Amino acid sequence: MTEQFDLIIRNAVLRKDPKTQFDIGLKNGKIEKIAPKIDAKGTGELDAGGNLVTESFVNTHLHLCKVYTLMMMDEAALKDYHGADMGKAMTAIELAAKIKEQYDEKWIIKNVRKAAALAARYGCTHIRAFADVDSKGKLEGIKALIKARDEFKGIVDIQTVAFAQDGLVREPGAEALMRQAMDLGADVVGGIPWIEYTDADIAEHVRICFQLAKEYDKPVSMLVDDAGDNGLRSLEVMALETIRTGWQGRSLAHHARAMAMYPKPYLQKLAAILKKADMGIVSDPHTGPLHARVRELLEEGVLVSLGQDDISDAYYPYGRNNMLEVAFLNSHLLWFTTREDMETLYTMVTTNPARAIGLKDFEIKEGAVANLVVLDQPNVLEALRFHEKPKYVISHGKLVDQKKMDEIIRENS
Questions:
Q1: pLDDT tens digit sequence for 7-37
Q2: Are residues 374 and 231 both part of a single domain?
Q3: Which of 94, 162, 232, 235 has minimal CB crowding within 10 Å?
Q4: For residues 112 and 126, is the Cβ–Cβ distance under 8 A?
């Protein structure tokens, strides 16, 4: 018996074959072998004990510059954002913007470190993270996120989004700030077109974002139609611009809450456009009263994933960067309660979001990068029921040092 693996996970149950236990051999950061029994040694070995081993979790939507800011402000924005039919969503955003007058990289980075370490503890190894870039926050948020991205590389991979939260047409100087953020090294161009005042300005906002994406060769993420207004159509504008510019597969929409009010024929037309654009939707039903029509989008073959969205900020008071918790909450909100539904929810916090943010070979197969969690539960039902920390987290083939993550959480709390 020769030592040929860096790490072997013994007695693992996989979602695709829950009645059989497997050994998983890791080498050079990848899954080298999956078999009922691996007759070799590993430099390290873990016993899954007949519990579930899956891909690690992926959070496609987190306003990381805002985490833990709720205690720094009043709850006026929270009340408006969660009001009936989300009719005052724009007012909520304007109220929430007050916190950015205090933005400073020095205190933002402490909050970001805590949230990133929590992600590692809960098995979330990839985050698409938004930082507001505007006349109030300037570049303080994106600087903190880029710093954290470098610090957590290989543990939690952070895709930093330069996010034009206050608009690009209505906000003088915003486009120039966005360019500065991209020059600093932001990974994704972020927009929020529905916040503009006119349809023409919405289209211009979308055009500017895609122009920046083309210039810097970066993906696009936009928050669209995040209010209770069935006349909002920025998702369609974004999807059509994705097709026009050839940015298929590199364009991702978030929220689309107005979709809850769309008539069925328009929803089906929109789904067809989204598929042509190869464009996914990230839904966060737990952070607002309205949400995209997840089940219907899935039935139409649209890529859908779930995001954390917020952690203790002006829009949402809770959150732990625990994507199993997000899936558990949305099982209730979406009425996804059958075993098939639960499997779908699990996919929406693992492989679907990985596809949505451009991760390749993010699955349990030989040759794939080893981003894995070893749970303390034997199946998806129990995993959702308890939504606990994984027993082990593996990022890029290496076991995450959970004691170190706990130290980071304590030091930055």
A1: 999 999 999 999 999 999 999 999 999 999 9
A2: no
A3: 94
A4: no
> How many other CB atoms sit within 10 Å of the CB of residue 136?
17
Residue 224 CA: distances (Å) to CA of 140, 205, 239: 24, 11, 11
Of 315, 382, 338, 356, nearest in space to 165 by CA: 315
Q: How far is CA 190 from CA 23, 31, 187, 209, 258, in A?
A: 41, 33, 10, 7, 19
Number of domains in the chain: 2
Apex 381 CA angle, 351 and 375, nearest 5: 65
90: part of which helix (H) or strand (E)? helix 89-96
What domain range includes position 392? 3-50+362-400
Assess whether 281 and 177 both reside in one domain. yes
Rounded-to-integer distance, Cα 31 and Cα 11, Å: 15
Please write the tens of the pLDDT for every residue from 48-95: 999 999 999 999 999 999 999 999 988 887 887 898 778 887 786 787
Shared domain for 22 and 168, answered yes or no, is no
Per the confidence metrics, is the pTM higher than 0.90?
A: yes
Q: Do residues 78 and 199 both lie within one domain? A: yes
